[in-house]
Write a structure and sequence with these properties.
The complex is a heterodimer. By secondary structure, chain A is an alpha/beta fold. Chain A is 51% helix and 11% strand. Chain A folds into 2 domains: 288 residues, Rossmann fold (3-Layer(aba) Sandwich); 58 residues, no CATH class. In chain A, strands 1-10-7-4-2-3 form a 6-stranded parallel beta sheet, sandwiched between helices. Chain B is of the alpha/beta class. Chain B has 2 domains: 117 residues, no CATH class; 115 residues, Rossmann fold (3-Layer(aba) Sandwich), CATH 3.40.50. Bound molecules: iron/sulfur cluster.
Chain lengths: 473, 241
């Protein structure tokens, strides 16, 4: 996977979801949601922190150039190299170039959404460089040959039996369905790789402009191995990860793990400022960071849509999303799924590619309730629906013509109330033809899309005449 | 004597005649003088929520005409439609225009039924009797957009004979979502089935809610599975004697 999609068919995919996916996803997300709720209730200032976090993010979005330049200056001063990548292709070429210069044959990777976004693994493999995921979940899906199905738990859709089967098949061993044993097997294989890799690749959770520091929040320790054991560390990071200073970081760290996994703090919080300065110090000899734009600058021009970049990738919105929990992450067609995926992909890939995603929501609002940086997800979904339905300065309408025509006709009838009232007289007798015992179990198109899942109540439309007769007396 | 205009909503109009009659009788019994602006059609939410904002604006104009003739409160049996008027009408018209002012003014006097009873009339006991085990589904816009967390339960609490049983995942969407049911029917169905599973597990013989859309969805689902659990609009439950 991890190829950039050309069309995301949410409906086509969700027509035949393997039942094991929602079952695995619901089990895991429920655990996270409960953990999150417990941590939130322990922190009386949680609401205040959300507001502060949201304010900091908006401020950073509005001043992104300033902070990015400050970051570059500080990284350079610390002896690191900063590369600017306008597109995914630029980013891939930059990493490949660095790898070639260092004669890299094996790259170990810690979990990174930006490298998924640019399809880095595929590019490295094509260039003859082995790219190995070392986060356990990422390792599993790399073996399985799929992309991630949750932004923080990439293999959330798999149960332990399925993981054991993947290990057995791909590694040619007899793996038991025991999480501890599976982890041990992976660890043994990975340890060897950490020792031999010439390059470590990572992403980042935050970039601190104040000091040019890259922050990584992880749980497994593999991130630390990737960024300290090889002599070369290359980070690929979206420009939206920038934050002003360490003081802001404290706010995000209080929110991130609590919202994500229900932890107070993740096991490891790592700060990387440039390469090692002296022999004997930890860290790689060379540190490179690729700052990825890939369309972000354009999205930043849209005052409603750009709030998507407030995201700290905690996954809380997916964990409470009833749509996500019933379809899993692959339905969203790209590396980022759930409510955040539904507002990210249509902006980054464009509505011609992802026009179905803004509609992949009942606008129930559960996501916005938990989002630690207060992204108004339903508002952005409606905004993107408007782009699909009517078109705006960013993209022309991509709504199929029959639906657009139906919307226009129905609005005409509803705005000219005599047409509506006339229709309301015609409809009950017509629909009576389909009605048995007050229920319509199969209706004509488009209502058949309703009745294939549950019957429709009979059209009674009796209030108006009741009111009239009653007041005539 | 408080005056109010009945906002019956298009789903109510088409499918819930009895509920609307009950709403009328109940409000009149509580001393509210009612009128019914017959030019009303739909609030325009289906268009608004699906991105057809210009069309939503046209439909909203009809609503503003219908309800703008009187300065009485506006009461509807749907959290979602009321939220459309209360929160989204003002967004539809540019600030500073007369239409925006009218929309904002109308928004300020539009209430969901239980909200009007509990928070405006300050009535919590309407004298209903319903000796059943009842559980409650919190509809999304009622709960999150209007912020009505306690109103329905306060009213249920005062019903004689009623035994309240909690619903697991009470606040999880039932899969209705308006056009969502026909845009992604399979997803809508699995969400509904989750909701039904929790309703069955609650042990209730009645599930009550404040939203005609969710009600059509849940009642249809229950009917299909052959369950004899009743799905009810809270207005109908509060009208039981
Ligand atoms: S949108 Fe909000 S809740 Fe969802 S992943 Fe981003 S920060 Fe977390």
């Amino acid at each position: 996977m991890s190829e950039t999609p050309t069309y995301i068919g949410f409906e086509a995919y969700t027509g035949h979801i393997p039942p094991s996916i929602p079952s695995a996803v619901q089990q895991a997300t429920a655990r996270f949601a409960v953990g999150r709720a417990a941590r939130v209730s322990e922190l009386p200032q949680f609401e205040q922190l959300r507001q502060i976090a949201s304010d900091i993010r908006l401020h950073t979005i509005e001043n992104m150039d300033t902070y990015l330049l400050r970051f570059e200056e500080k990284v350079t001063a610390a002896g690191g190299h900063v590369h600017w990548a306008a597109t995914a292709e630029d980013a891939r070429q930059i990493v490949l170039q660095i790898a070639r210069e260092h004669n890299v044959k094996l790259a170990v990777k810690s979990k990174s959404m930006a490298t998924e976004e640019i399809g880095l693994n595929h590019a490295l493999e094509t260039a003859g460089i082995e790219a190995l995921e070392t986060d356990l979940g990422e390792y599993i899906i790399q073996l399985a040959g799929t992309g991630p199905s949750h932004i923080i738990v990439p293999a959330i859709h798999l149960k332990k039996e399925e993981i054991a089967a993947i290990f057995s098949e791909k590694l040619g061993i007899d793996a038991p369905a025991d999480p501890i044993e599976l982890t041990r097997i992976a660890r043994e294989i990975l340890r060897e790789k950490f020792l031999n890799a010439e390059m470590g690749v990572s992403g980042a959770n935050f970039l601190i402009a104040e000091t040019g520091t890259l922050v990584m929040v992880t749980n497994e320790g593999n991130g630390r191995m990737c960024t300290t054991m090889p002599d070369l560390h290359v980070a690929v990071v979206g420009i939206d990860k920038i934050i002003p200073d360490w003081e802001s970081l404290t706010v995000f760290l209080k929110l991130l793990a609590r919202s994500a996994t229900g932890q107070k703090l993740s096991t490891y919080t790592q700060f990387i400022t440039g390469p090692r300065r002296a022999e004997g110090e930890f860290g790689p000899k060379e540190f490179h960071i690729v700052l990825l734009d890939n369309g972000r600058s354009d999205v930043l021009k849209d005052p409603i849509g750009r709030e998507v970049f407030k995201c700290i990738r905690c996954g809380a919105c997916a964990n409470v999303c009833p749509v996500y929990k019933n379809v899993g992450g692959f339905a969203y067609g790209w590396f980022i799924s759930g409510p955040i995926g539904a507002i990210f992909a249509p902006q980054m890939l464009g509505t011609p590619t992802a026009r179905e995603l803004p509609y992949a929501s009942t606008l129930c609002g559960a996501c916005a309730d938990v989002c630690p940086v207060k992204i108004p997800i339903p508002t952005i979904l409606r905004h993107l629906r408007r782009r699909v339905a009517e078109g705006d300065q960013i993209a022309a309408s991509t709504m199929p013509a029959p639906i657009a025509a139906a919307a226009k006709l129905s609005a005409l009838a509803l705005a000219q109330n005599w047409i509506y009232r006339f229709g309301a007289r015609i409809l009950p007798p017509v629909m009576a033809l389909f009605t048995r015992d007050s229920w319509i179990s199969s209706a004509p198109y488009p209502l058949n899309r309703w009745t294939k899942s549950r019957p429709l109540l009979a059209f009674t439309a009796g209030f108006r005449s009741w009111w009239k007769n009653r007041n005539a007396k | 004597m408080p005056k109010a205009q009945l906002f019956i909503t298009c789903l109510g109009d088409q499918f819930y005649t009895k509920t609307l009659q009950n709403m009328t009788v109940l409000l009149e019994r509580l001393g509210v003088e009612l009128t019914f602006p017959h030019e009303q059609t739909c609030c325009g939410q289906p268009h608004f929520n699906n991105g057809f904002e210009s069309q939503a604006r046209e439909v909203a104009r009809n609503f503003l005409r219908a309800f703008g003739r009187s300065d009485a409160s506006i009461i509807g049996p749907s959290g979602s439609c009321v939220s459309m008027v209360k929160h989204h009408y003002p967004e539809l018209f540019p600030a500073g225009t007369p239409e925006h002012a009218l929309a904002a003014e109308i928004a300020s006097r539009t209430f969901e039924f239980t909200e009007y009873l509990v928070n405006v009339l300050k009535v919590t006991d309407v004298g209903a009797v319903y000796p059943h085990k009842v559980t409650y589904h919190a509809s999304c816009h009622y709960l999150r957009e209007l912020g009505l967390k306690t109103e329905a339960k306060t009213l249920l609490n005062a019903v004689k004979g009623l035994e309240f049983v909690p619903l697991n995942e009470e606040e999880t969407c039932c899969g209705f979502g308006g056009a969502f049911t026909v845009t992604y029917p399979e997803v809508s169905r699995s969400m509904m089935e989750n909701k039904l599973k929790n309703i069955l597990a609650s042990g209730a013989d009645t599930v009550v809610m404040c939203e005609p859309g969710c009600l059509m969805n849940v009642a249809g689902g229950l009917h299909k599975t052959g369950s004899n659990i009743r799905a009810m609009h809270i207005i109908d439950l509060l009208s039981s004697k």
